[in-house]
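Methods, example record. To illustrate the input and output format used throughout this study, we show the complete record for Crossover junction endodeoxyribonuclease RuvC. The sequence lines were provided to the predictor; the line carrying structure tokens was produced by it.
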Amino acid sequence: MRVMGVDPGLTRCGFSVVETGSGRKVVALDVDVVRTPSTMPLPERLLAVWTAAEFWMDTHRPDVIAVERVFAQHNVSTAMGTAQAGGVVALAAARRGIDVHFHTPSEVKAAVTGNGNAGKAQVTAMITKILGLQKAPEPADAADALALAVCHSWRAPMIARMAEAERRAEAQKKVFEQRLAAQRRASGTRSASGTRSASGTRSAGASRTMTGGAR
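The corresponding predicted structure is encoded as:
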């Protein structure tokens, strides 16, 4: 499986591509950071990120894309820019029919370091070790993009099992609802039949009484 990891951002947007092997073996194929100056108009900055994302997808043809899920930050403008950058990447993927999965920073840190509160230095050190890189990827956005790709590579089997479990649960729910609806219809039919029968019995009895009185 080929996974493209994206650490979204406007000033710096990290891109990476890894390929999974047997077990937990992961091989890094490429990594880079796309930069846009803060003086550039927002639409042009988003266009630059989108163009880079399309180039990476067309060049590496990933099977799936892992993007960092944005959470509220103290700097609202930074959070909005990060979300917007992630959105254009997801859009580029959707145009190609590529699945996109979002992972929280704590999920990524826990996957590669075992500690959901690990710092950037720890993440960079572990990614360098996991991928057997000769030197640590720089800047931190590059390491984060690789960490996202590795995180998804290792979490993919669990995600697939959860999706299958949800699919089966939904199918069982539909079967149960169909059976319940059928039972209700059958119960309503029996109830209506019983009412008609009781009404007919009373009418016949009344008729006999009236006839007898006439005699």
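Annotations derived from this record:
Residues 49 and 85 are 7 Å apart (CA to CA).
The radius of gyration is 31 Å.
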